[in-house]
Amino acid sequence: MLNTSVLVLNSLYQAITITSVRRALCLLYKGQVRVVDADCLTYDFRCWSDLPVQPGEDAIHTPSRAIRAPRVVLLVDYDRLPRYDVRFTRKNIFFRDRNRCQYCGGRFRTRDLNLDHVVPLSRGGRSSWENVVCCCVRCNTAKGNRLPIEAGMHLVRAPRRPRWHPLARVRLASRRYEIWRTFLDAAYWNVELESDEEDGLTVQ
Ligand SMILES: [Zn+2]
User: Fold this and answer.
1) Ligand 1: distance of its center to the CA of 108 in Å?
2) What distance in Å separates the CA atoms of residue 113 and residue 100, rounded to the nearest whole number?
3) Which phi and psi (to 5°) does residue 36 adopt?
């Protein structure tokens, strides 16, 4: 229970990261965070630990009492939205490209996709966000060690470094707790997208 997840908001109720119950309770005890409930009411350590645990609720049991496990906490003195650099990893490239081959546009399972250097390494291409795309095995073979133009192929869209809200993935991957939804949906719609056409999103 102490290692389960807690969503952390800044003081403007913007989701910024995820932490553990253990750490959240420690910060709560020190007064650096307040617990947020489904009605957006906040509680300091004393008020929170005085709340009775309802049947079926997650709780931390100490010898003297049980404390409800917080699921959302708010940083009292932090109103910024930290910038995160998205790491250049295979997983993140697949995620950026939504598992679509960037040449034929087909969607594939991860294990059926390769990474392709648009400008091949042997031709001076670099391993970077701007030069590496998701590619199906067929297109990868067809392209070989050539530039797309030489192979008569076109990129579905020019690859770029993504700028995701750090929690965009979390929202898509899992909504672990019902109460997170309110805050993650808000975070999601505030994500600065490179392009929202790809997955049919409409940003209003
Ligand atoms: Zn393909």
Assistant:
1) 9
2) 8
3) -110, 135
